[in-house]
Amino acid sequence: MTTWTLARRAQKMNPSVIREILKITEKPGIISFAGGLPSPKTFPIAEFAAASERVLREDGQAALQYASSEGFAPLREHVAASLPWNVDPNQVLITTGSQQGLDLVAKVLVDEGSRIMVETPTYLGALQAFTPMEPTVVSVASDEQGVDIDDLQAKMGEGADAARFLYVLPNFQNPTGRSMSEARRAALVERAAALNLPLIEDNPYGDLWFDAPPPAPLTARNPEGCIYLGSFSKVLAPGLRLGYLVAPASVYPKLLQAKQAADLHTPGYNQRMVAEVIKDGFLDRHVPTIRALYKSQCEAMLAALEKEMAGLDVQWNRPDGGMFLWVRLPEGMSAIELLPKAVEAGVAFVPGAAFYADGADPRTLRLSFVTASVEQIGIGMAALAKAIRATLGG
Amino acid sequence: MTTWTLARRAQKMNPSVIREILKITEKPGIISFAGGLPSPKTFPIAEFAAASERVLREDGQAALQYASSEGFAPLREHVAASLPWNVDPNQVLITTGSQQGLDLVAKVLVDEGSRIMVETPTYLGALQAFTPMEPTVVSVASDEQGVDIDDLQAKMGEGADAARFLYVLPNFQNPTGRSMSEARRAALVERAAALNLPLIEDNPYGDLWFDAPPPAPLTARNPEGCIYLGSFSKVLAPGLRLGYLVAPASVYPKLLQAKQAADLHTPGYNQRMVAEVIKDGFLDRHVPTIRALYKSQCEAMLAALEKEMAGLDVQWNRPDGGMFLWVRLPEGMSAIELLPKAVEAGVAFVPGAAFYADGADPRTLRLSFVTASVEQIGIGMAALAKAIRATLGG
Q1: What pLDDT score was predicted for residue A35?
Q2: Closest partner residue to B261 among A131, A225, A270, by Cβ?
Q3: Where are the domains positioned within chain A?
Q4: What is the spatial distance between Cα B265 and Cα A82, in angstroms, rounded to a whole number?
Q5: How far B226 CA lies from chain A's nearest CA (Å)?
Q6: CB contact under 8 A, A45 and B60
């Protein structure tokens, strides 16, 4: 019997309590507000079918061959041209979903014990991507406007222990749905530059605004100090695994080498399909339909919350876009303890504790308003309120 | 100006001299035996087009949605059923190319300074995938039969410094084209088990045999002691980036978590396309056509070598399959120094030095016989011989 010696990092990659808990949300027939799954109604299947047919007919051999690690040139050019600051296509690296961008960033910037900073709460997948490189993750306080700049400075560290970066989602954040205000963005970029603190800006949801686009990205304000991560998962479909990063010339070559070592390149066929779908301004016509759908679903969820939570000390925010809203349960309640009861009542969510590196607020939970239908949202919210009332009464 | 502090591992990820040299092989019009590119003539474009159409029509929403990190169940089942030992589909993890399998293995099994062993020479991409985890790479001597078992034992290390694994390509190895004999396989598996040494068996080329299939995989002989890496890149097409690994239950959960953190999952659309193409025994009809093509190209290259290298002290092997053969230049010559002259004469190869962790034999070089046509092979070999003669005469 061979005994396998695991790397130390593998010990840190334990199945989280949360992940185990979430398995119960996979019960068939349940109304789930748990997953961060875009509405499949928005996937442009006919356009993908036409693009696939054309790519294979006109460029099949190249689409199916090994390709460069940087990515398909027309797609890199499209990404560069679509961003609201001056981006050279040579700064764009196509990634296998923006999740891979997080993996590459960690590989290139994080040593064992390196201090890195995250908003709190933050995207669970980022914590998972950073963990294998064994950083010391420091949570920076955040409020409705975004990252607390003074807390950031207080936790920055000095000399060799200075934070390698701050990871931040300024637009319709996962998990809270919050967006960073213009004033806070300006202050953050200024303070970060003064502190010599690189920013990792993750922007999967920025196009999903309801009434007005969010303020300019952090990276647009200081491109040399930021790595920007973007994705086609939320505006086209996640199943093709297509994301990208934009990095300054001082870091790009290392990210490229890490990319090559990780999977050689992102599927060229997928890159060509997406380049084909978007080349004639398709996203300008398509994304507004996603915005309208998600806005109506968000409004339905807010209305259902108003109705069903009446009289309960439950709080929630009103997102300006994205996929999620953030709920706080009554004093003394735990979202983790509530979840099995909610599942029994037919509804699922993600306990907020999943999204904290430390110091979780046990009363919080995340609701996705994009996957379930408006009708399901109504039924699900009633079930959730019932589970809360039963817990309070019990 | 923000100063980016890079991880130590990033310093080790330097652009290799070899990679810089290989840029000259990208000169337009050159006959290249350098790349490990499958012949695009073998890509089943019509079958992919039909599969894509069907997948999007029948299962479009699921194909384009987020999916499980383990992979698409029918594809995992196909992989398990196709392997010549008893494999539970739950042991199969679909990866974004088998290159990703190497990345995951390194993350889960390698600490900074961990001893790992490789054949010498070995696959350059594996060295690149392992490097970010900062192992101490130990080269194990190899001969025409495979890994030298006594050298393996001598370099195994003890206690905390015992090697975490041996990485080995038993079939039509990259770069040498060599295959491990039945006797050597049996001896290696026995000795590895006695030494408590896990084996990482990489088998991208095993199906590409010319006259007879290679002996049974190492993993078939001791599944609990091996991780097996496979790929659809050489039997279908590399541009979809589809590979897999098979791992024992004691390691699988950690590899799965590393996979989830790396890119969430491999594109579900691509997995469904391949599952659709292969479901009715397509590979049984298709792979023999690749074998026949590659055998004829290999024979053409061997004949051209016989003809063009006559009178030169140049040695080469006769592979039983795969994509590569291995050449040794006359005493005193360096393949790295020869390359610019060969490129000037219109032909490219990869200097063997690219494939050694240390102690490179400067006289060696790798030729791929699968990308160029038979006619190009003739012209290219004449050009290579001319460059060698010019060097010897100069």
Answers
A1: 86
A2: A131
A3: 8-43+284-393, 66-282
A4: 26
A5: 9
A6: yes
Of B4, B40, B125, the CB nearest to A250: B4
CA dist., res. B381 & res. B388, Å (int) = 10
Contact A268 B8 (CB under 8 A): no
Distance (Å, whole) CA B25 – CA A319: 53
Digit-coded pLDDT (tens) for A83-135? 999 999 999 999 999 999 999 999 999 999 999 999 999 999 999 999 999 99
Task: Please give the angle made by the CA atoms of B277, B279 and B283, to the nearest 5 degrees.
Answer: 65
Indicate whether B322 pLDDT > 70. yes
Q: What is the pLDDT of residues B103-125, one digit of tens each?
A: 999 999 999 999 999 999 999 99
Contacts with B8 from chain A: Cβ below 8 Å: 111
Q: Which of A8, A13, A116 to mutate to test the interface with B (most CBs of B within 10 A)?
A: A13
What pLDDT, on a 0 to 100 scale, did the predictor assign at position B11? 86
Nearest to A103 among B2, B196, B262 (CB): B262
CATH architecture label of A66-282: 3-Layer(aba) Sandwich (3.40)
Cα gap A269→A59, rounded to integer Å: 9
- Taking the CA atoms of B80, B85, B86 and B92 in sequence, report the sign of the dihedral they define: negative
Residues of A in contact with B129 (CB under 8 A): 261-262
Tell me the per-residue pLDDT of A178-204, one tens digit each, with 9 for 90 and over.
Answer: 999 999 999 999 999 999 999 999 999
Contact pairs from chain A to chain B, CB under 8 Å: 253
Q: Chain B 89-118, CB below 8 Å of chain A: which residues? A: 96-97, 99-100, 103, 107-112, 114
- Name the residue of chain B whose CA is nearest to A254's CA: B10
Digit-coded pLDDT (tens) for B213-257? 999 999 999 999 999 999 999 999 999 999 999 999 999 999 999
Q: Is the peptide bond before A217 cis (omega within 30 degrees of 0)?
A: no
List all residues of chain B from 175 to 194 with a beta carbon under 8 Å from chain A.
192-193
Phi first, then psi: give them for residue B152, nearest 5 degrees.
-55, -50
Class of domain B65-279: alpha beta
CA distance A20 to B373: 54
Q: Is the pLDDT of residue A18 over 80?
A: no
Query: Among B225, B217, B216, B219, which Cα is nearest to B249's?
Result: B225
B8-37+284-393: which CATH topology?
Answer: Aspartate Aminotransferase, domain 1 (3.90.1150)
- Please return the burial class of B210, using the count of CB atoms within 10 Å of its CB with bins 0-12, 13-18 and 19+: middle
Alpha-carbon span B381 to B299, nearest angstrom? 13
Average pLDDT on A325-354 reads: 95
